[in-house]
Amino acid sequence: ITRLDSSDIASKAASEVKDFDPASEMDPKEVQRRISEGRKHLSFMTSLYRDQLRRGKHFIHEHPQSAYSWQEAGIKSLAQDPFVHVVTADQCMYGLTTPDPDGKPAPARKSTSFMTSSRQMADLLQRRCDKSHKHQPLVGGRCHNAAFYPLKLIQTILQGMKDTRDAEETLAKNSEELRQLICSVTDMAGKIPKDD
Question: Which end of the chain is more exposed for a tag (fewer CB within 10 A), N or C?
Answer without folding.
Answer: C
